[in-house]
Design brief:
single chain; 137 residues; alpha/beta; Barwin-like endoglucanases; six-stranded mixed β-barrel; globular
Length: 137
Amino acid sequence: MRIGTYTLLFITIFSFNCKSEIEESCNSKIFQVTATAYNSFAYQTSSNPNITAFGDSLKPGYRYIAVSRDLLDSGLVHNTKVKIEGFDSFFTVKDKMNKRWRKRIDIYMGVDVKKAKKWGKKMVSIEYCIPIKDSIF
């Protein structure tokens, strides 16, 4: 019993310290955006629908998003982890959208067109973290 109590205490303290380090090393950003969905088909993307604008290969089953270019300017850059309202895990920025879009994300849904159509178009809140660069004085 005593070992279990000490183990639980250690895990609690360790988790708190890790969270503090993460919070201190970045600035959290929250935005309201329009969220749509897309699939790996040429008629929705380009002649090579499995390659992103960043040059990454899309793989169905992974949690990827494309972002509008104004969000890139807000620190939501390639490989950033993003929490999207309504989902329980993070998505990774792997693609960028056409220049005409503003405050918008496109959620990658592999080849499941029905799922993408069911998602439709929604306003959601997204949250991500911009690392704080060490300053040299």
